[in-house]
Amino acid sequence: MEATTAKVVGPRDGKAGFLGSIGVRFMIDGDEADDKIIAALVTVQWAYYARTIRGSAMVERRREYIEAARGLALPHWRVAFRHLLPNAFPPLIVVATVQVAHAIALEATLSFLGLGVPITEPSLGLLIANGYAYMMSGSYWIAFYPGIALLFAIAAINLVGDRLGEVLNPRLAQ
Question: Under CATH, which number does the domain 2-168 receive?
Fold first, then answer.
């Protein structure tokens, strides 16, 4: 079972995520482009969450308190839900914040290329794409300020993720 899980949730690189989201975007039928974008992002990014929680659970299940709970003959569900998952969950929160920033950047990239949300919906990628034609005419600010907003949003989310990693790390607690 573990070998199958490891193969399905195996390592992926950034290019596979970007190209995979483009492929999923065109494969899914539906009227709403938002649904296609969300489905593409979830399809591409679920493996990061699965890999993180699996790795954390594999480390935590070898800890002494799990062995003690098993030695007390507690039911497997109680060991899993009361002992294992609460201690394996903090790394998942950190990965989730980083992946939210990645999803925002990926959506902006798809929208910039014209593969994202429709023109009638707001998106930083669409704003940058609309201002791209005016870059050399002296109206650089049409694309510059949405790009700066995108940069600040992604940087802020990454800083929150770093801080959560510091706060939730029990080895750094004093």
Answer: 1.10.3720.10
